[in-house]
Amino acid sequence: MFKRSFVSKNRAGKTVKGSKKKYDEQAKEKMQQKVESPPGANPIITVVVGSEQRLFAAHEDVLSLSPYLDTILKEQSLQDGTKRVELPEEEPEILSCVLEFLYKGDYFPRLMHGKRRDSWHLENAQDLNNSGGRGSSEATLFHRGVGDVVLRDTVVYCAAEKYGLEELKRLALRKQGLQTGIPADVILRSARFAYDHTPDSESRLRAHYLALIIRSRKTFKKSGTMQMEMETGGKLFFDLFVAMCNHMDDMAEIR
Fold this sequence. Notes:
three-stranded mixed β-sheet; Potassium Channel Kv1.1, Chain A
C-alpha cells in the first residue's frame, strides 16, 4: 500500500468527488420506495445502541440498505411480532448520523455547494451553538471507546465501512477534508482510530491522514504527542515513513 507518491492527480488524501446524483435525489427515491411498500411490509425496528442502551426506531427497509444490518435482520425471527438490532459498541451520535443519511442522503451539518464560488462548505459550520436541535456542528466528538475526542467524520467513515455504505464513506471523507484548525493530538488520535477500524485494503481515509501529516509536518515536528505516538509505533507510522519517502522522491524529481 501507498507505493505511489502523494503528488499524483489521483492520489488519495484529496477529497473524493461525490456521486453525480445529488444526495437529495437519492433520499427522495428511498422515501418513495418506502411509501409504495404494501401495508405491513415495512415494520418499525428498534435499534439498541451503546452501553447505555439508547433506543432508536427505523423502518426495516431503510435499515436493510446497509448490507451489515440487512444480514442481522434476516437472521432474526419475529418475536412478538417485532425485531430489534443491538449495537452495543456503537456511539449513539454516530448511529444518528447513519440513520439520517439513510433517510435523507446526508447528515448534519449538511454538505452545501456554493454556486457563486463553485465550492463546498458545511451547513452552519460557522455557528457551533445553533444546530436547531438537529445535532452538533462541532468537528469532534467524545468517543467512549477511545476515552477522548476524535474527529466525528472519521468515526462516521469507519461506521460506514462497517455497515457497507460506500456513498456515506465518500460523503464523510469530503466533509473531513473541509475541517481546519484541528489540534495535532486530535489528528493523531483520529488517525490511529482510522487505522484501528478500517481494513488494510482501505486506502482513502488512511491516505488522507498521511497526506495531512506530511502537509503539516512543521507542526508535527514540534509535537510531543507525535514523538510519543511514534515511539509506540504501529502500521500508521510505517505507512507514514513510506509516504514521506515518496514525497521526497517526487520533490527531488521536480527539482
